[in-house]
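Entry:
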Amino acid sequence: MRTAILALMPLLCAPAAYPQITLEQAVQEAAAKYPAVRASLEQVSAAAAAVEVARDAYLPHADVGSQLNRATHNNVFGVLFSQSGLIPGMSGPVLNTNSMESVWGTAVGTLVQWEPFDFGLRSAGVEAARVARDRATAQVAVTRLAQTAAADAYLSILAAQQTVTAARAGVDRARVLNDVVSALVKNELRPGAEASRTAAELALAETQLIRAEQAVEVGRAALSQVLGIPPAQISVQSGKLLDLPPESAGLATVESPRPPEQHPAAAAQKGVVAEVQAREKTLDRSWYPRFNLEAGLWARGTGVRSNGSVGGAAAGLGPNIQDWAIGFSVMFPLFDLPSIKARQEVERYHERAERARYDQVLQDLNGQVARARALLAGARRVAAHTPVLLKAASDTEQQATARYKAGLNTIVEVADAQRLRTQAEIDDALARLSVWRALLALAAAQGDLTGLVQLAR
């Protein structure tokens, strides 16, 4: 039993193997789990709720209230300006009294107000809220471009892994050469300087391997930041990404011209312009009269009579006098016009600024597309030449090794040839990934990674 447990210990202690993530899965997970995307979606929900709030302005407004108080009943003639409840209002005749005797007072009532027409002010408010919702929706698409960061980190991990593979092969070759030369030096068949040189080459190859392994971990950390999972659980699947993508039909979905106006960033900025215009429209209708149809029903009770006498201890505790009223009121903000004009001027400047930003977004997107196309063309040309370079470097390394064994050249030529071969292997692997990275830049500049993801399946 003990032997069986000891045999299982390596399996129990081994790190868990996590499923490999494809590029398509990384892009989808980034769009679904990135916190900024969730925040943008909640902002859309809030903007949609604001539309309903604006629509509620069409409904009647009703207030219901009641009051119970114990107060004196002295009253005087005269006018008193409104002072925000500092001095309570009184009703009833002026009594020739100045007593501190108090009585009960009660009131209950309701007031319904409705604006039958408003010259389009409420409609403008609803439209402004709707435009704000559309702008928030467009911003979600911009936030979803976090997919680009996920895809870029994904390709960075693959590039670093390919560099690790080539660097590890370079370390193996440098170690073999160092062992052979060290044995020759030990047997006094080669000068000691050659052993020092091969040791230095081995250290250089190991340093290159360490840096490549570091790049893998950095790429995992970057992808982890977008996907929200621990870096140790990230394992990428190369799929077609290590092959050179075709230049024909498959790339039409990525390389086909797409107007910059359809980019999410342009759509979001266009929404900002529309939002400013909606505020201007609202201000245009702010200097119209406000009409209110009002209806009120109320009842009051008091413990004092019109002749100044008071009732019993419970007099006034119940409202016993009822009234109702229906009316139509008009309010006109006569002196608000200068303020409204000034606010309209502010919004016009805001609109010009946002239009300029929209033009800048389009200009930047056009520049990004042109730059990505140039990168793609250059990456394809480089990828066509690296296999030739790799074959030549491999042949050179083999010939240099053979000549060294025959005593026809020095260790310097062998070391240089091995280093050239390692670099050629790295360049050849990265050249193909550079084409994919250029395609990613082009897809991001066009605001849609769908074609790239389909091509990488």
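Residues 18-72+103-456 form a domain with the Outer membrane efflux proteins (OEP) fold (CATH 1.20.1600.10).
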